[in-house]
C-alpha cells in the first residue's frame, strides 16, 4: 500500500530518501513526506498529492543537510489524503517522527488514552497515535529501539513503522507485523524499504525480516530483535536484478516497458525448470512426492489479475492432471468456512507476495492443515515465506500498477505447476510433458510477434478515446483473458468495461449491446472446433444487434472473417496456451487508450500496487 524508506550513512539523506520514494511511489501516491535529523531537531516536509509536490516544496524551501532520514509515500486508509494526514507524523514535542504502512486496529482505544494525557491529536490517522506513544517512551528515558519494542507490543493490526529520534542522529528503527519491510545492507550505510527497489541503486544485498521483529540500522550495522527484545536474525539474500530493471528504458510508462519485456520475462520464467534427469522441478518444495500424490483437490486463491491467472490454471490442471480445482477470490475465501484438509492443496497466486487478502487466506488454509503452494514474483516476500512450496515467476520488478508481465509469468508458472503435478501423479507421459514444455518455450517468439504489430492495436485504441463502454468476450481459457482485458481498461482508462463468457451473453448481458458498442472478442484456436464455432456464433449474435466486433483470432482462421469488423491476428498456438498471446493486445489497447485520454498509466487514480490491507 504505502511506500517506506529509511536511511543512515554518509550520503545526503534527502537524496537517498527522495530517490527511494520515487521508486516506491507505485505503492501509493496520495501524499508524500520526509523527515531528516539535523542538529538535534527534525526537519520535516509533507504534501498531499504525488511526490512531485513534495519535491517542489523542498526546492522552494530547502531542508538542512543530513545523513539520516525517513520518507513515505501514502495510499490513504485512515483520513483523507491531505497535508496534515500525510506522513511522517510527529510526537507532540516534535522529537519523534514516524512513517507507517498498514492499519493499527486498536488505534481508537489508544487515542483515547493519549488524549487523556492531555495530548492533542491533530490528524485523522492511526499513525499519529504511534508517534505519540513512541515519543512518550523516549521521554521516559528509553532509547528508540526499546521504545519501538514497547509500543509495538501494544499495537494490534498490520503495520510497518519506521522512526527517527531528533536526539539520536545515529539510528533509524523499524518494526513489522504482517506488512512488508526489507533492510538494504551497505558499507558504512544501511537502508530500509518496503521493497528492495527503495535502495537497489546503492546495494543489492538485502536482509529479510520475520514477523513481529524490530530492526535498528546504524552506519556500522544492523540489529534485529523480537518485540519482546529477544535477539533475532534476519535472512540475508542477494537481489538478482539491478537498477536498470527498475528504470523506464525509454518508454513513456513503466507499464508499456513491462508489456514489451514479456518475451524475456516469459523466457526467464521457463529457465532452469528441467533437471538433468529430464524431470520438471519447482523453485522451493517442502512437500514430498507422496504428499503431492495424496492431493485430491486444489483451491486456487488470488485477487485481481492474479485471480484470472488462477482461472486459466484451472483449465490446465484439470485437463492435464484430472484433479478438481476451485478458484476463489482470496478476500472471500476464509469467510465462507471452506472445506479443507491435509489432502487439499491451496495455491496462492500473488505478484507482490504481500497482498493481505491472499496472505490471510493461506494462513487460514494452513491452520486447517492444508498444504500451500505460492506462485509469486517477489523473492523474500511474506506469502512464499509462509508457504510449503514456491514457484517464483522471475519476471523482474513490476512497477506499473497494472499487472502485465506479472500476469503472463503467472500463467507460465501455472502451466508448470500443472505439468509438475501431472509428472508426480503420472497423469501424463513424460514425452507429453516435454512436448508442452517445448510449446511453452516457443511462446516468447509468439509474444514478440504480437508486440511487433503493436501499432495496429494503438491505432484501434485511439479510435475509442470517447467510448463510454467496452465489452470483452471469451470462452474457455479465453474467458479469463476477456476478464483481464476488461480489468485493464477499468483501472487505466476509468471506463465501463466488462468481460463475459460468450455463452452467457444470451442469458442477460446481450441487453447491453447497442449500435456501435465496441466488443473485443477472443476467438479460441481452431483445434477445438466446437468451442471455436460456438464463439463465432456468439460474435454473430452481438454483431446482429449493432456491436462493432474487434476480434483476436489466430492466423489462418477464415471462419471469423465475415463477422469481424476489425481483425487482429494471433499466432497459432494451442488453445490452453492462447492466453499468453491473446492478453498482450488487450494490455496494449488499455495502455494506449488511457494514454490518449491523458491518464497517468503507471499510477491510476485510487489504486496502489501492493494491497497490504484487507
Ligand atoms: O500482488 P498481487 O498479485 O497479489 O495483486 C493482486 C491484485 O491486487 C492485482 O493483480 C491488481 O488487480 C492489479 N492492479 C491488476 O492490474
Task: Note down, in words, how this protein is organized.
- The protein is globular, with a radius of gyration of 25 Å.
- The longest helix has 21 residues, at 405-425.
- The mean pLDDT is 94.
- A hairpin with a 4-residue loop joins strand 12 (213-217) and strand 13 (222-226).
- The protein starts with a strand and ends in an 18-residue tail after the last helix.
- It is an alpha/beta fold.
- The protein has an eight-stranded antiparallel sheet with strand order 3-2-4-1-10-9-11-15, covered by helices on one side.
- Helix content is 35%, strand content 24%.
- 5-amino-5-deoxy-1-O-phosphono-D-mannitol (M6R) binds next to helix 9 and helix 17.
Ligand species: 5-amino-5-deoxy-1-O-phosphono-D-mannitol
Strand content: 15-25%
Total of domains? 3
Radius of gyration, in Å, reads 25 Å
Tell me the helix content: 25-40%
Structural class: alpha/beta
CATH hierarchy, class of the largest domain: Alpha Beta
Major β-sheet profile: 8 strands, antiparallel
Number of helices: 19
Mind telling me which CATH architecture of the largest domain this is? 4-Layer Sandwich
* Main β-sheet, spatial strand arrangement: 3-2-4-1-10-9-11-15
CATH fold assignment of the largest domain: Glutamine Phosphoribosylpyrophosphate, subunit 1, domain 1
Q: What is the CATH homology-level superfamily of the largest domain? A: Aminohydrolase, N-terminal nucleophile (Ntn) domain
Mean pLDDT: 94
Molecular shape: globular
Number of strands: 26
Distance between the termini: 11 Å
Poorly predicted runs of 5 or more residues: none
Amino acid at each position: 500500500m504505502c511506500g517506506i524508506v529509511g536511511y543512515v550513512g554518509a550520503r545526503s539523506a534527502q537524496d537517498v530518501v527522495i530517490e527511494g520514494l520515487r521508486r516506491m511511489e507505485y505503492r501509493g501516491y496520495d501524499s508524500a513526506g520526509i523527515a531528516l535529523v539535523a542538529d538535534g531537531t527534525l526537519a520535516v516536509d509533507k504534501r498531499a498529492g504525488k511526490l512531485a509536490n513534495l519535491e517542489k516544496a523542498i526546492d522552494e524551501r530547502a531542508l538542512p543537510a543530513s545523513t539520516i532520514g525517513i520518507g513515505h509515500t501514502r495510499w490513504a486508509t485512515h483520513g483523507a489524503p491531505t497535508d496534515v494526514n500525510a506522513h511522517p507524523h510527529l510526537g507532540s514535542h516534535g522529537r519523534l517522527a514516524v512513517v507507517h504502512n498498514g492499519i493499527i486496529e486498536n488505534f481508537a482505544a489508544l487515542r483515547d488514552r493519549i488524549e487523556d494525557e492531555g495530548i492533542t491529536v491533530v490528524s485523522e490517522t492511526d499513525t499519529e497515535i504511534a508517534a505519540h506513544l513512541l515519543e512518550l517512551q523516549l521521554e521516559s528515558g528509553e532509547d528508540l529501539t526499546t521504545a519501538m519494542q514497547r509500543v509495538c507490543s501494544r499495537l494490534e493490526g498490520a503495520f510497518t513503522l519506521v522512526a527517527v529520534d531528533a536526539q539520536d542522529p545515529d539510528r533509524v528503527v523499524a518494526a513489522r507485523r504482517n506488512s512488508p519491510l526489507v533492510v538494504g545492507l551497505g558499507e558504512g550505510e544501511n537502508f530500509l524499504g518496503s521493497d528492495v527497489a527503495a535502495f537497489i541503486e546503492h546495494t543489492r544485498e538485502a536482509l529479510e525480516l520475520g514477523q513481529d521483529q524490530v530492526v535498528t540500522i546504524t552506519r556500522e550495522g544492523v540489529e534485529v530483535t523480537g518485540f519482546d527484545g529477544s535477539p533475532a536474525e534476519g535472512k540475508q539474500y542477494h537481489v538478482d536484478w539491478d537498477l536498470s530493471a527498475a528504470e523506464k528504458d525509454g518508454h513513456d510508462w513503466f507499464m508499456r516497458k513491462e508489456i514489451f519485456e514479456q518475451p524475456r520475462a516469459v523466457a526467464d520464467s521457463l529457465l532452469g525448470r528441467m533437471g538433468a534427469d529430464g524431470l520438471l522441478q519447482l523453485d522451493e518444495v517442502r512437500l514430498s512426492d507422496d504428499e503431492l500424490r495424496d492431493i485430491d483437490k486444489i483451491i486456487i486463491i488470488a485477487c485481481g489479475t492474479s485471480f484470472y491467472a488462477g482461472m486459466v490454471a484451472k483449465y490446465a490442471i484439470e485437463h492435464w492432471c484430472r484433479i478438481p480445482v476451485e478458484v476463489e477470490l482470496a478476500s472471500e475465501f476464509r469467510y465462507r468456512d471452506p472445506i479443507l484438509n491435509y489432502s487439499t492443496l491451496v495455491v496462492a497466486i500473488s505478484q507482490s507476495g504481500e497482498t493481505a487478502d491472499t496472505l490471510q487466506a493461506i494462513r487460514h488454509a494452513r491452520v486447517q492443515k492444508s498444504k500451500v503452494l505460492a506462485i509469486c514474483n517477489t523473492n523474500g516476500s511474506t506469502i512464499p515465506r509462509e508457504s510449503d512450496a514456491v514457484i517464483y515467476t522471475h519476471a523482474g520488478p513490476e512497477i506499473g500498477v497494472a499487472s502485465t508481465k506479472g500476469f503472463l509469468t503467472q500463467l507460465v508458472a501455472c502451466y508448470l505447476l500443472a505439468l509438475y503435478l501431472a509428472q508426480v501423479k503420472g497423469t501424463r507421459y513424460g514425452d507429453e510433458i516435454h512436448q508442452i514444455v517445448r510449446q511453452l518455450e516457443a511462446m516468447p517468439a509468439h509474444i514478440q510477434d504480437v508486440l511487433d504489430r503493436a501499432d495496429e492495436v494503438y491505432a484501434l485504441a485511439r479510435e475509442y478515446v470517447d467510448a463510454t463502454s467496452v465489452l470483452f468476450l471469451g470462452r474457455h481459457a479465453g474467458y479469463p483473458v476477456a476478464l483481464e482485458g476488461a480489468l485493464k481498461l477499468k483501472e487505466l482508462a476509468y471506463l465501463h468495461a466488462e468481460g463475459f463468457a460468450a455463452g452467457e451473453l444470451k442469458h442477460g448481458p446481450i441487453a447491453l449491446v447497442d449500435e456501435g458498442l465496441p466488443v473485443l472478442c477472443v476467438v479460441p484456436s481452431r483445434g477445438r472446433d466446437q468451442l471455436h464455432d460456438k464463439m463465432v456464433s456468439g460474435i454473430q449474435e452481438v454483431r446482429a444487434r449493432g456491436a462493432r466486433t474487434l476480434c483476436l483470432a489466430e492466423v489462418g482462421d477464415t471462419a471469423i472473417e465475415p463477422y469481424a469488423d476489425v481483425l487482429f491476428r494471433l499466432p497459432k498456438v494451442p488453445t490452453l496456451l492462447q492466453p499468453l498471446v491473446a492478453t498482450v493486445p488487450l494490455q496494449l489497447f488499455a495502455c494506449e487508450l488511457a494514454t490518449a485520454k491523458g491518464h497517468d498509466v503507471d499510477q491510476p487514480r485510487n489504486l496502489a500496487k501492493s494491497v497490504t490491507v484487507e
